[in-house]
User: Fold these one by one.
Assistant:
Number 1:
Amino acid sequence: MTGRRYLIAGNWKMHGRLQDGTALAQALAEKLGPNGDPRFEILVCPPATILSAVSAVGEKTALLTGGQDCHAAPQGAHTGDIAAEMLADAGAGYVIVGHSERRQNHAETSAQVKGKAAAALRAGLKAIVCVGETREQRDAGQAAEIVAAQVAGSVPEGATADNCVLAYEPVWAIGTGLTPTIADIAAMHSMIREKLRGLVASPEAVRILYGGSVKASNAAEILAIDDVDGALVGGASLDAGSFWAIAQACR
Ligand code: PEP
């Protein structure tokens, strides 16, 4: 971590109704206040149904909000989908694209993820582009190759450190309590940084998050890795105390 401010991002997935979602956001907003913390930024990505309300709670504070997915088009006949412009309209500053649950459950390809990330940039949002290998791919020794191909195929044209964040999330580490070794995370993040050198301007300034079973007890050693610039957190982001404890592990 050299000169990059940590981003601690919470992916609430399909959790959160109006009352508990706004209460969780309120608790974080109170901790952050208007000025936040110089070490890290805190982002929450609630379900789209409560994004406006959560954004309103964070409005006069340093709490950032984002969507969990977007469509590539700005509008149209796409029942059930949400345009990046709609997320911006609801107060979002970020959107997660290519989460493994989207890649797996909705068969999203890297080309589609790239289209979504481009839509985020068009709408003035920052894209969090997720990549990560499955257990089978890691066991077959293909992890680096798979992740490199996902990075090359998913990062949109025009991506910069200001509008794009990468998130390395091994599929087998998400929601399982399992994490790669510190050496494996370091090797993957360094490979992703190297890959970005041929893809974006100012690759050294792009933040690369780690995601997959991050919790208060393992955050410090993960966030201490050179090319780890924050965390994408699922389960532990649903409790303000646990999520805040992860942020406190930032150096
Ligand atoms: C995620 O879904 O992005 C994630 C990292 O989940 P968890 O922290 O629960 O493993």
Note: The two ends are 9 Å apart (CA to CA).
Number 2:
Amino acid sequence: MTKSFRTLDDVDVKGKRVLLRVDLNVPMENGRVTDATRLERVAPTITEISDKGGKVILLAHFGRPKGRDAKDSLKPVAVALGQVIKKPVAFADDCIGEPAAKAVAAMKDGDVLCLENTRFHKEEEKNDPAFVAELAKLGDIWVNDAFSAAHRAHATTEGLGHKLPAYAGRTMQAELDALGKALEAPTKPVIAIIGGAKVSTKIDLLENLVSKVDALVIGGGMANTFLHAQGVGVGKSLAEKDLAATALRIMEKAEAANCAIILPVDAVVAYHFAANSPSHAYGLDAIPADGMILDVGPQSTARIHSAIDDAKTLVWNGPLGAFEMTPFDRGTMVAAKHAAERTKAKKLVSVAGGGDTVAALNQAGVSGDFSYVSTAGGAFLEWMEGKPLPGVEVLKQR
Ligand code: AMP
């Protein structure tokens, strides 16, 4: 992909005060960080700027506080971050005003400082110009390393990019490079696998994908809506029958765009929404009226397998069945493992994202074998919907 945004390669950070927007939303229990994955993700950018002699001033939100709230303080997170980057992380009790200004003034080249939760000020989410101006006083440049917050035009995720020279951090850069390879300039043919519970949450995403990919596999609960729209009896399955017209419209759009829609041809049906409840695979003409489709069937799994073989690029969001419960995880697990194998064999570029998808790939033990797995929920989905992300747009070269 042509690099359309500036990165840390385009700036000499030595001696500069670098306002670095990061995602520090780690899970916490009793004031302790229980999973440091996100801290590990932002560590390379922090370390690089610090090693080059920049002053790293971290900006981040935490949770959804309504005003100042001690339970959403970033202080314990800053301590945990220090352990990850193996360097002291100083802390200031406010992200603007005297506490912030004093802490920044005390920094030496290479120091790392974390400012308190930006959402303690309601002006953050309003992208308030006066608040942006206060923040901008603290830095010489702004580096955005929080792709997961890039779908929001907030003061620290977007506003600062209009006030200060703006650059992508290494995590942001890796994410944008990976996503670019998947949809913007992919090696064709491109296949998308979209699953999950409902069509209603993914209409924009499906409409965007049919105009971009060569084949679209639809699975999960949302496939039931498409099957119903085509006159298939889906029994008591989860299906949004009022969205039948939407499903047909998406199929028409796909046909016009030469995108093959791959729907299930058989289904695993159970009578209770519970792990290990007795189940059986049925063809589409024989779904029992009192049964529930909880996974794609074996023939569908084989079709998805060969569709993955035909593709050079894969984008995936959403499980193909109720993967949290055995044996209804099977379709998702088989597809995930196969995509991982093809990726390892260098036959496929595979990009996946979304909360349930990450959980499913972890369950299959293949997250590390995909080309890229995005942990950014909302931002990843908006990217799949083809929407411009404000926090990325502002990084583009002007
Ligand atoms: P989403 O958040 O839209 O990606 O949906 C993920 C959820 O869809 C997971 O909790 C799955 O258990 C659920 N799901 C997938 N397939 C089915 C199905 N056939 N019936 C009911 N729920 C499903």
Note: The pocket of adenosine monophosphate is lined by residues 195-198, 201, 220-221, 238, 293-294, 318-319, 321-324, 354, 356 (CB under 6 Å).
